[in-house]
Amino acid sequence: MNWLSQIADDWKTEDPDRDFSRLRPLVRLSRLSLLMPHFQKSALGRHGITPSDYSILGALRRSGSPKQLMPGDLYNTLGCTPGGLTKMIDRLEKRGLVQRLTDLEDGRRARIRLTAKGEAIERKAFADYNESADDLMERLTQDQLDQIDSALELLLDCFEPSEESRWRSPISSSAGRRGARRPLG
Prior knowledge:
Arc Repressor Mutant, subunit A, mainly alpha, 185 residues
């Protein structure tokens, strides 16, 4: 018996009248959320970068030429706090992976640019990460990967707020309603 079946059996014993079918995917997702950081650190650590470092380097590379973004654009892409983003940029800048450039239109602002060194590390890290993902998922068929991706997209939609519910509190908008959409904020 696997660990999830054991948990389900234990809950059925404890609360036999409750349907736990909606909980199973969330328990699996919770377990994956514990395993993913190890996978990411393993693949990216060989290049001396963390997953958060990579998220900045990757965002800058994907932005196209001249591979630079405003801090606000990075903040929106990464979803971290402004203070956390500043610390990450400082760390990458000290290593010569990014540089701050004064905005010519407004000297109070800075653009963040990927350096040649940063781009080289990002390219190698992305290649290793992609290869690690291929190795991890090699036993899955393309059809299975497509099914997993579709299911995760549906689940992500349950968590991410829709445009019309963006203003609502996640607790007040879903309290007491079974099957209701539960935006996180």
